[in-house]
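2024-03-11 09:14:02 INFO worker-7 job=invfold-0412 stage=load source=structure_tokens
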């Protein structure tokens, strides 16, 4: 009886481990080279990373209209673009949610929100949800910093250490990472835990 129980436990563990390894293998990790993508911006133009001839890298942020965490970070995202776009690290915002699941995250609603907030960076729709799974994004917001010359992932995680309240931020993960890259230094904290709403997937 004990032997059968042990075999069962080991079998479950093996299946779970195999599944986890398979999933992780498909997600971008630090140092991985990403595939460029082409997605529609709220101005109806198609955007690719290759379009940015002068960029040194990108602050790619999976975000949306509806998640309270994303809304709480909008001003911080705007500030990141304002601070780093001219230094070669523009923000590229991507809405990964399926609009059939969340109507307020539709492309038309994205246009409204971008206009209301005065976004000066691309706000792209992951139409068909083909891009975010490659990154392994699970939350909104979820940040990936990528260098342009090699398209390598340099940072993955949260914007800072306060998911909802900007007044309580004591460590700016993304700013610290970009500053290190601009200075040609090593990023001290390359991964942090993204906190936010789960990405809404078509059923």
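2024-03-11 09:14:09 INFO worker-7 stage=emit residues=203
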């Amino acid at each position: 009886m004990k032997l059968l129980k042990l075999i069962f436990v080991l079998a479950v563990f093996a299946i779970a481990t195999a599944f986890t390894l398979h999933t992780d293998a498909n997600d971008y990790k630090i140092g991985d080279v990403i595939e460029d993508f082409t997605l529609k911006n709220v101005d109806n133009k198609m955007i690719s990373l290759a379009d940015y001839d002068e960029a040194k890298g990108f602050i790619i942020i999976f975000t949306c209209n509806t998640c309270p965490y994303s809304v709480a970070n909008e001003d911080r995202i705007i500030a990141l673009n304002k601070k780093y776009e001219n230094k070669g690290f523009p923000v590229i915002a991507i809405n990964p949610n399926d609009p059939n699941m969340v109507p307020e995250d539709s492309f038309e609603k994205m246009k409204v929100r971008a206009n209301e907030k005065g976004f000066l960076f691309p706000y792209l729709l992951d139409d068909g949800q083909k891009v975010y799974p490659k990154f392994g994004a699970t939350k909104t917001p979820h940040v990936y910093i990528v260098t342009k010359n090699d398209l390598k992932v340099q940072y993955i995680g949260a914007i800072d250490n306060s998911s909802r309240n900007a007044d309580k931020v004591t460590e700016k993960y993304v700013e610290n990472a970009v500053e290190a890259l601009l200075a040609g230094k090593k990023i001290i904290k390359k991964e942090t835990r993204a906190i936010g709403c789960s990405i809404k997937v078509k059923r």
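2024-03-11 09:14:09 INFO worker-7 stage=report msg="DSSP finds five helices and nine strands in the chain."
2024-03-11 09:14:10 INFO worker-7 job finished
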